[in-house]
Amino acid sequence: MNARPKKSFGQHFLHEKRYIERIVSAISPRPDDFVVEIGPGEGALTLPLLAAAGKLTAIELDTDLIPDLQARAASVGELSIIHSDVLKVDFTALAHRHGVERLRIAGNLPYYISSPILFHCVEHARAIQDMCFMLQKEVVDRMAAEPGSKVYGRLSVMLQLACRVEPLFVVPPGAFRPPPKVDSAVVRLVPLGPDQLPDADPARIHAIVKAAFAQRRKTLGNALKNVMDADAIMSADVDPKARAETLSPQDYVRLACVPAG
């Protein structure tokens, strides 16, 4: 199949065999896994994943791609396609509906909506075993960034508080049709166990992290003035004169544990 990529969907179809094989190997699906693929496109990953797992659920928004994908998958395994915007898919309900404890999620994510998809998946982390995504390399760098890095930010903190982030390898533009203008990278996300999750209100953590990085050039005392005052910041053993990118994810957890006043 050689579908015409649609700019409105941010489509870049993976076609180079060696990278397809590396991604499938990284996912390493087993017959007893419940695999969900986001954005199967022309099926470059779908068919080998389906062959390995025997069954697969794919989420595809582009109706033009679905008939051919179903036809090609018929002789490979049991493919179920959900025609939907992935942000409207309840992964927790999907797992419950199929009687599985946790899903394994994979996909070549559209660049323009990758961060919302990541945050959406994190909301359902308890129903997810792991995630293996291909994204813009710049996004993967941000996901795995350490405090003090120029690309360390809200995405870094929120993902690292919910998952173990493992960058795997870079995929060059030539592996896609049409080639994007930037490098891509594959990353594995493994949700943390209940005993590893922050002992603080997730909404409070999110509010503090969002405020801190919204004005990252300002000191925390100024950036967080509508969320907490300098005394509250100091009570968490954090310097109000520090800037957002210098704090570790656990520093933000301590800030979130300070009673709101």
Automatic annotation (TrEMBL):
Enzyme category, top tier: transferase
Keywords of this entry: Cytoplasm, Methyltransferase, RNA-binding, rRNA processing, S-adenosyl-L-methionine, Transferase
Entry GO terms, CC: cytosol
Leader sequence residues: none
Main location per the UniProt record: cytoplasm
InterPro entries for this protein: KsgA/Erm (IPR001737), rRNA_Ade_diMease-like_C (IPR023165), rRNA_Ade_Mease_Trfase_CS (IPR020596), rRNA_Ade_methylase_Trfase_N (IPR020598), rRNA_adenine_dimethylase (IPR011530), SAM-dependent_MTases_sf (IPR029063)
Cellular compartment(s): Cytoplasm
PROSITE patterns: RRNA_A_DIMETH, SAM_RNA_A_N6_MT
Pfam families attached to this UniProt entry: RrnaAD (PF00398)
Residue intervals of the Ribosomal RNA adenine methylase transferase N-terminal domain: 19-193
EC nos: 2.1.1.182
NCBIfam families: ksgA
The protein, known as: Ribosomal RNA small subunit methyltransferase A
Annotated source species: Dyella japonica A8
